[in-house]
């Protein structure tokens, strides 16, 4: 990768900007329903409920209704389901936000995330409580969210739309994601990539971009 070519930087959200722990959601739903976490995971996986929610096939209300049906708990209030679903969201280290704000002075910045409306609302609350930034849209030129786009990574179509709508050239664009499949799909289109892998963070990978 030639750093000097880069004009645009596209960030993933989970485990790139906000720390997450995906199994915590299944654990939270298991505790609510009195079932084993593995059983809950299997039920959700069989019907691809998260994929449907994160591609907009299910609305927030539809997602909640489906969860009630699948876990046979028709009386759960919305906030109980939202809290369980948001259990996987952890913290946003302020230094990552400071880095993004510094990068805005040199690059066009974008966000591309496989996510849902419930998660975005929760992330914005965490962002504001942690840094005083009101919403993700305040950090980026444009925010691309799978549930609004009707397609999710690693489908090539989502990257093509991002490049087109952002008027970006692939070879001038750097994409950071923690998922190897998502990285491979972007790289296949000529996008420059960084696979974010713990214990390293964007603070490590992008240190040279603000120096």
Topology:
Elements: E1 8-11, H1 23-33, H2 37-47, H3 49-54, H4 60-70, H5 78-85, H6 94-103, E2 108-113, H7 117-131, E3 142-145, H8 146-149, H9 156-165, E4 173-177, H10 180-188, E5 192-195, H11 202-205
Parallel strand pairs: 1-2, 1-4, 2-3, 4-5
Helix pairs in contact: 1-2, 1-5
Pfam families: Hydrolase (PF00702)
GO molecular function: hydrolase activity
Organism: Arundinibacter roseus
Describe the structure.
This protein has 211 residues and is of the alpha/beta class. The protein folds into two domains: 3-19 and 90-209, 3-Layer(aba) Sandwich (Rossmann fold); 23-88. Helices cover 47% and strands 11% of the residues. The protein has eleven helices and five strands, in the order βααααααβαβααβαβα. It has a five-stranded parallel sheet. The longest helix has 15 residues, at 117-131. The chain is globular. The mean pLDDT is 96. This is HAD family hydrolase. It comes from Arundinibacter roseus. One of its GO terms (molecular function) is hydrolase activity. It holds the Pfam family Hydrolase.
For the structure shown, list the relevant keywords.
globular; Rossmann fold; 211 residues; alpha/beta; 2 domains; 5-stranded parallel beta sheet; single chain
Describe the structure concisely for a colleague.
The chain has 211 residues and is α/β, with parallel strands linked by helices. The protein has helices spanning 23-33, 37-47, 49-54, 60-70, 78-85, 94-103, 117-131, 146-149, 156-165, 180-188, 202-205, and strands at residues 8-11, 108-113, 142-145, 173-177, 192-195.
